[in-house]
Amino acid sequence: MSRRTQENLIAGLLVLVFAAYLLMTLSLGPNARLVPVPIALLGLGFLLIQIVSQNRSDGREFQLDLFASLTAGAVSSTADASGEEEPEPRDTRESFPRELQAAGFLAAFIGLILLLGPIAAVFLFTSAFFLVTGHFAPLKGVTVAGLCTLALYLLFAVGLQLQMYHGVLAPLFEPR
Amino acid sequence: MLEAIVAGLAALATPQAVLFMLVGVSYGLVIGILPGLGGIVALALLLPFTYGHELAATLALLLGAHIATIWGGSVTSILFKVPGAAKSLALVFDGHPMTRQGHAARALGASATAALLGGLMGAVFLAFTIPIVRPVMLALGPSEYLMMALWGLTIIATFSEGSLLKGLVATCLGIMVAFVGMDPVSGTPRFWFGNVYLLDGISFPVAMIGLFAVAEMMTLYVKGGAMVDRVSGEQRSTVLDGVKDAFRHWGLVLRSSLLGLWVGVLPGVGASVGGIAAYAQAAQTSPTPERFGKGAVEGVIAPDATLGANEGGGLMPTLAFGIPGGESMAILLVAFLAMGIVPGPRMLTSELDLVFSMVWIVVIANLLTALIGLAISSRLARLPALNPNVMIPLVLSVCLLGAFATRGLIEDVVVAAAFGVIGYLMNKYQYSRANFVIGMVLAEMIERNLHISLGLYGEFFLFTRPITTAMLVFIVVTTALPFVRRYRRSRASAAGNGS
């Protein structure tokens, strides 16, 4: 999938978000929608101009960044004001499996937290991550994960006295 | 007044006060470094420990912790591109590029020193300017605060990663997300989908943890390799270089501190606007603005000096009028009342020694934070060179636990993860995350002040309030200026090519 198609897909998705948001404001009173409506309309407007702009045949985007504006053009207009490096052209086919893996790791971690609670999930996730990536030998990986979990437990549960969530499976382990 | 200054210091010369100050600063540094847990959480967690101790010692614990969280937040911005709090966002712009170039120790040194100098100036101004600032503060109403929020929004609207339009879309998205939950004026539930969790709105620190920290870890995994290319042994500069940088740019430190003090004095504006504004003025006044965004040390010094001075400024309305300068100050106000300190004009007369105790606490806490910060900076600078296979699970664990810790709600962990995916996509397709976050921060201020202004001054308040009108003109001019400059440049280059 070309970069432009991907950009159009994202922009299309955002158009749907803005449109749905606008629709939802219809059920609100005049005070409650006083600011959300113009903001959603503005966002929708900007997005439509962006879609037209990114699909222009010359491929030129309506670009302006902070540095160009502050420095009277001393800096290239593509400089990244947020300190992030210039966008590197990524090979989508190459990065997509890695992206799926990253999302998978995150989903698995969240799943573990919901099932077992944060502390047990941290131990299992870090141990599994070390084992899967092979960064540490299995025993060392589990030991490092255990020490990290202990440190986090001491910090959050003991130090900050945070009432921990024990997961949806907790009732199974409770004494009857 | 001299008596009050001496009495204020003497109250802190007890073993309990010294111990509480040390504990507060150390605790604040740890909390500040944890993503999402800023000064608000630090103060909220300390509240139960504030009863039954010496008044000055308790104040040292609270204020010391609060001040130390500021530099703690800067550390994660500089090293990991993860703002510890919204106010530390501007530190990401040049601090992280410095880390990537092997100047992390220098950036941390400059950051700690600038925060110290800013904090000292803030304390001095707090001590001497209360009578001067009071009439100015009272002259500003909700319509002027609305204009300030809009100014903040137009300033950051230009912080776009490439496309200005995408930056504006991201800002609108951030504002829209902030409207989830109860309408602050009418109490109408909005965009809550029948979910009670959403009635409280999306927690700002949770969204930020997701957008920056979780998204960064995803990016790191997809990209592979360490966060910084250079290993710790190849640091190109030292902490001392950073300290010298801060002193060399004393003019910038002074300007940024004054800005921070002013932003702190204005109730409800918040330090996040100050940090961004400080960065913008540093770039505008620099003789070499082309270095900004690529690792200019001035881009670290300016926001940190502003944040340091902001605390002194924030104490002013809290103490003098009982109006908190920000969320942290609101919690501090609660603590003050619990300790029997009643803010108001009396603080500036019969309770002046207590005010000076606070001034001294700000000074000493800033000094302690800077000393500890400078001592540990060179070690902290090695962290980003950690192998990603170690860093990813550890940072993710800390961040998701941090998300849970903000309100003790498990739903916040899921929301942080969802924002992580959104942040990854925003980064990939260059919809500015910084704009999104600042939109979220300013949304409530805009909505609340708009409603109050309409109620108080009528529909045409923009033109009936002279200061508001002047500020509106200022906003229009500063927003239009970049476009005019760009147009002129393109015409000049077209003329040059033609000849």
How would you sum up this structure, described in words?
The complex is a heterodimer of chains A (176) and B (499). Chain A is an all-alpha fold and 176 residues long. Chain A has two domains: 53 residues; 74 residues, no CATH class. Helices cover 65% and strands 0% of the residues of chain A. The termini of chain A are far apart. With 499 residues, chain B is an all-alpha fold. Chain B folds into two domains: 461 residues, no CATH class; 35 residues. Helix content of chain B is 74%, strand content 1%. In chain B, strands 1-2 form a two-stranded antiparallel ribbon. The N and C termini of chain B lie far apart (70 Å). The model of chain B has no long low-confidence stretch (mean pLDDT 81). Chains A and B meet through helix 1, helix 2, helix 3, helix 4 and helix 5 of A and helix 5, helix 9, helix 11, helix 14 and helix 18 of B.
